[in-house]
Design a protein that fits this description.
The protein contains four helices and 30 strands. By secondary structure, the protein is mainly β. The strands form nine sheets. It has a four-stranded antiparallel sheet with strand order 1-30-29-28, with no helix packed on it. It has a four-stranded antiparallel sheet with strand order 2-3-4-5, with no helix packed on it. A four-stranded antiparallel sheet has the order 6-7-10-11, with no helix packed on it.
């Protein structure tokens, strides 16, 4: 593949840990570090640049799960402080954005599980399907305990709580291991199947017809998966899964990715950027469950291509970036915002073609 990397008009503000999607001819991106702001760029009216859409009406949030279906943008969960709260919690609400009316509306549902960091896609049946997600009870209780300790006055106690939490094994966090569905027509939730693989958060997701590809992501805080998995949805009751080739097969130094950008060009899946801790896989293999303790976080600029059988290395972005939004449209992938190695929310955008 002869891949072109071009600059794209910068965002009005830096946006990381946000949401986005393609609605009609418009790219939408917002929330996360942008607070309640949502912006759009009309691909058919580029002279107008980025415009502001209606503000989000709910609690400000990071790392919400989001998906486009029926030409609407849906936002589920995320982490944020409730009006009467002192620490972030896993939120259990959901919202819908209608680009035609430029209006948000709250869905009349309470999430059955935490979907912070989950990955979602929309099936042709009108069902939204969810993989992964933090356990609300585990996250909320830990954050309350940690925030109750003054890190300056009691640094050892603070570090002790953090070490205990990070030293749990993979299945010690209660992350969602089921494949959940939300029926838009009936406003109901159901479990379609148990995910045979370790639960992921921050995984890349790509839907191509009945096939859903889930790329890496975290399997516990600080540790990335090395797996690419595919799920075939022949029906809501007939779901098969298999492991695909891994980026690790091509690069044995690969540590896995979280917060990466994924999309499709010419039926090829691309995984772009993302972040990981250098040495975390070695530590984990040596049974050091706090696998990223003392390690530096690396922000990748690599671009990987998957043709359904194997991964290949493509060109690289000018700089490492992660935790932004990727949108596929007309054989292009728009890389919008994210954060750099200093944790600074980015306005810079790219388009791959």
């Amino acid at each position: 593949m002869s891949l072109l990397i071009d600059s794209f008009p910068a965002l009005p503000v830096g946006i990381k840990n946000g949401i986005g999607g393609l609605l009609g001819t418009r790219l939408y991106v917002g929330l996360g570090s942008a607070g309640k702001q949502l912006f759009y760029y009309d691909l058919e009216q580029p002279e107008s640049g980025w415009q502001q859409a209606a503000d989000f009406p709910g609690t400000e949030r990071n790392d919400a799960c989001y998906v486009v279906s029926n030409d609407k943008l849906y936002v589920f969960s995320g982490a944020g402080k409730l009006p009467d709260g002192h620490a972030p919690v896993v939120l259990d609400d959901a919202y819908q954005f209608d680009a035609i009316t430029n209006q948000w509306s709250k869905l009349s549902t309470t999430l059955p599980i935490g979907l912070l960091g989950a990955s979602a896609c929309g099936l042709s049946t009108g069902q939204l399907v969810f993989f992964g997600g933090y356990c609300k009870e585990t996250f909320d209780s830990f954050v309350v305990r940690l925030s109750s300790v003054n890190v300056k006055a009691e640094p050892e106690k603070h570090q002790s709580l953090l070490t205990e939490f990070m030293s749990r094994p993979v299945f010690g966090y209660g992350w969602n291991r089921d494949i959940w569905a939300y029926d838009l027509a009936t406003n109901s939730w159901s479990v379609l199947a148990e995910n045979p693989f370790a639960a992921n958060c921050g995984a890349g997701i790509v839907q191509q017809g009945k096939t859903v590809t889930l790329i890496e992501g975290e399997i516990k805080p600080g540790l990335r998966s090395l797996q690419t998995k595919q799920f075939q949805f022949d029906s809501l009751t007939d779901i098969t899964s298999n492991l695909c080739a891994s980026i690790y097969d091509l690069d044995c130094q690969h540590e896995g990715l979280a917060g990466h950008y994924v999309g499709v060009i010419a039926n090829q899946i691309l995984a772009v950027g993302g972040a990981y801790f250098v040495g975390s896989q070695r530590n984990f293999n040596n049974k050091q469950w706090y696998s990223h303790q003392g390690l530096s976080k690396h922000y990748s600029n690599s671009i990987w291509r998957f043709d359904g059988k194997a991964w290949y290395r493509e060109r690289a972005l000018p700089q490492g970036v992660a935790y932004g939004v990727a949108i596929s449209a007309d054989n292009r992938i728009y890389i919008l915002g994210g954060e750099n190695k200093f944790g600074i929310a980015q306005t810079r955008c790219y388009v791959l073609s």
